[in-house]
Specification:
Blueprint lengths: L1 H24 L3 H5 L16 E2 L13 E4 L5 E4 L4 E8 L4 E6 H4 L20 E3 L3 E9 L22 E6 L5 H7 E9 L12 H8 L1 E5 L5 H6 L3 E5 L4 E5 L4 E2 L7 H24 L1
Parallel strand pairs: 1-2
Antiparallel strand pairs: 2-3, 3-4, 4-5, 5-10, 6-10, 7-8, 7-9, 11-12, 12-13
Helix pairs in contact: 1-7
Length: about 280
């Protein structure tokens, strides 16, 4: 009888150990799927962003999808333009971008083919952007005070992009009156760059501009506790993907985990009592 009780107790303890080891060794597939990744170049991509084709959509926030461009950089698209994501500051919730057409025209003399820009989603806000106007189909001859804004583009069979003027330049209104086609590109200007001269527009376009983004404030807690941030699109809620399973905010053990550990400790105590009686 003593040995029957002994082996029954031993079986219970071994079973509990198996449960615990399986629970601790199995990693939730969403946790693995949301490992930060990048394209060949550029920053590491993680929540609230995700790379289409490399990461699952639940690893990011709706609308924050990126793609790897032909140059190997992550890109974000608006209706009119593609933008290279140059860097991301996750603590500041900001990222810097520049028009992808600039990268395709590094050695060209002509202005890149760009269009008016609309931010793709409402969660993005300009940090400190102004507008650089490209004016074409202008009346000739141009007034003398507009000549310094003229952009030459010889041999190109396309609309002649005649002028490049910043929005705070005193001659902008005169340029708008003399030209039919108008494109405004968001940029950042420094110092006296508001009075642009020929050749500076490429440097300003390449610098790009910074955007703030808004997303869940709970991601820092999740990452601090070893999780990877994600989003449940079915219920439109933030989720923290932990090695064991998704949690609401962080990866600290819940009551169910504590209950399992308590059960195992009780089983071991019972085993020790039985061993003492058998001895």
């Amino acid at each position: 009888m003593k040995y029957t009780v002994f082996f029954t107790s031993l079986d219970i303890c071994v079973f509990c150990l198996i449960l615990l080891s399986r629970k601790s060794s199995a990693t939730d597939f969403r946790y693995d799927a949301c490992l930060p990744k990048n394209c060949d170049n550029g920053p590491k991509i993680k929540f609230p962003f995700y790379i289409e084709g490399l990461q699952k959509s639940y690893c990011g926030y709706p609308g924050f999808h990126l793609k790897c461009g032909k140059h190997g950089y992550p890109m974000i698209s608006s209706t009119e333009n593609d933008y290279i994501v140059e860097n991301i500051s996750y603590p500041r919730r900001s990222f810097r971008v520049y028009n992808a057409a600039v990268l395709s025209n590094l050695n060209g003399r002509c202005l890149p083919q760009i269009r008016n820009t609309t931010l793709p989603i409402r969660e993005f806000q300009y940090v400190n952007a102004t507008s650089l106007y490209f004016l074409s189909n202008c009346i000739e001859p141009l007034p003398n005070d507009l000549l310094r804004y003229k952009v030459e583009c010889p041999g190109e069979k396309r609309d002649n992009l005649d002028l490049a003027i910043c929005d705070k330049d005193e001659n902008l209104q005169k340029g708008l009156k003399n030209c039919e086609k108008i494109v405004a590109a968001p940029v950042e200007v420094h110092g006296d760059e508001e009075r642009i001269v020929v050749g500076e527009y490429k440097k300003i376009l390449r610098r790009g501009f910074e955007l703030y983004y808004s997303s869940s404030s709970e991601c820092s807690t999740c990452e601090r506790e070893g999780g990877r941030c994600g989003f449940n699109t079915t219920i439109s809620k933030f989720r923290c993907f932990c090695p064991d399973r998704p949690h609401y905010k962080g990866c600290r053990p819940r009551r169910a985990d504590s209950g399992m550990l308590y059960f195992i400790f009780v089983a071991f105590d019972l085993w020790n009592v039985i061993i003492e009686k058998l001895v």
